[in-house]
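Archive entry. Fields below.
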Amino acid sequence: MRELITSWIAIIGLLLTAAVVTPAHALPSLDLAVIVNPNARVSQMSAVEMETMFTRAQTRWSDGTPIVPINAPPGTESRITFDRAVLRLNPDDVGRFWIDRRIRGLGLPPRHLGEPGSVLRVVEKLSGAIAYVPEHLVPPGGKVKVVARIRQGKVLPP
Amino acid sequence: MRGMLLYRLALAIGLACALALCPSSSFAQGAPAAAPEPMTDERIDQLERALQAQRQEFDAQRAELQARIQKVEEQAQASEARAAEAAALTELDAAMEGAEEEALVDPLVRVYGFADVGLQRSWGTIAQLIPGGTTKTTFVLGNVNLYFDANPIPDWRFLTEVRFGLFPHGASERVAQGSSPTIDTTVSDDGSPNGGFTNIQWNGVLLERAHIDWTPRDEISLRAGWFLTPYGIWNVDHGTPTRIMVEAPLLITADILPQRQLGLEAFGRFQALPWTVGYHLYVSNGRQPGQLDFSDQKAIGTRVWFETRRPFPMKFGLSGYTGRYERVEKTIGLRPGGAFSVTEKESIAFTDYAAAVDASLDIGELRLRAEGVSRWKFFEEGKRTSYLPGTFDADQNTFGAYLLAAYRLPWYGLEPLVQTEIFRFSLPLGEYALRPSAGLNIYFDPAVVLRFSYTYSRLFDLEGPERTLSFNYLHSLAARLSVAF
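PREDICTED_STRUCTURE:
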């Protein structure tokens, strides 16, 4: 029994040591604009509506058009800010959330695009797209429609 | 471009030379054919000065011409550079648009999965009874599960999950009563270079699920194939990276509801924000000894669930199932006269009724899970199972329930947990089992987690004749390192 206890304590000790050196994440906050295609039949969205779309609980707009949520890449300031404000999840929690969904067979997370310019172009062209970009990068002229803003980590109307 | 420059330069020099020669020629032609004037030194100096002036003028013209040529060339080069830049930008733009589209379009097949390996030890009187089991500390390979997720066309999906394992080599058969022979899959490796002297043990593949989904809308989807029975938490969570506790509760181990079924399922969800309401309705072969159903009485089941993430994530579910199990023995004989005779006899037949409830709550860092399943099993007369020779099983009610609480500490990804399960079944070892557990999860990363658990199982009777339960307790210690990918 003593050998059993010793071996298990040794294994647990080694693994705890490994856990201690795991780095922590920073806490960024960026002002974001949530954008949709200009032809979308929506002018304003709440946090819970965006949450259902970005968690894939809802996959179609009211007119049946497939929703194409576009995330910022994991670990970016935009992504962390959005996930905290809308999904109310930290980066690790987001990771666990999608691993759980995947293992349950419920599908994969939304795709992500790195460049805000690319995001704007896709949202402009794709009727079902919804995405978010830094607020100051939203171009004037109505090429995309802003349906919500995220400032200081809070979801606000456009 | 360089050749044209040289050509133009040579042309200009030739023109300049012609200009240089022209004045003396015209001068000679313009002069009357009179008697030549005497060439004085003054006259020679005058001619030299005129020639010098003409040369200077020519040099100036040549310089101006070269400047113009250079300017034209620079303009041409700039124009070409602008054209090339525009072409490159167009190409880049096209490439970027392609990348965007590619980034958003689902690939035909995606492969992902999880794996876990571990260490475990079971001891106690019950451990001695487990056929093929050990009471010593042993390393184990748990799961190597691969998902193949295909979307051939919009709204259609094929998902299969395959588990690879070291089974069945060394495992025990569970069909024979009173004895459980160990399976040996050792064969010669005929493809080995030594001509087959090498021995190998072939291993198994378990099809966890394989189904085709059609999802025209969120509210209605159809699924056909081999699917996980939609009930409770554990069976839906399904994989080691997702489950909070390492060791499966007895209600799962005992198959109170079949874990998987072959049939047709309709499912969907409705938004009643902030709630999402979902349903499952299926018809299947139900619980059967194999893939085939030997009766037309199909199993049916349902599940309704309610989920929200506000004010905190929570989910509640109700499930039901009913189905008939039958084991058919077919005998084919030969009658006198040459005709075949076929006799089909149901040796075992019973009908199941089962209901399940579940609740999940994530309140801050506290995770609570509760699940209960109850099953009523009614045999048809003359078609009862027999656990011990000379006896027949009675109609049974089996139920199990557990409550789990886990708390994520703010340090180092640690998550201690406790769980208690009570289980009622029908075994000679005892009628009830109480199973308190404690565990610790360590999240190195969302995809990598190490789980420990200790469970003490105790069997006891609450009713019926008093009996001495000599094989009535079990300690089990388990650890699993899992990775999802």
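CURATOR_NOTE: The helical segments of chain B are 2-30, 41-104, 125-129, 234-237, 250-253.
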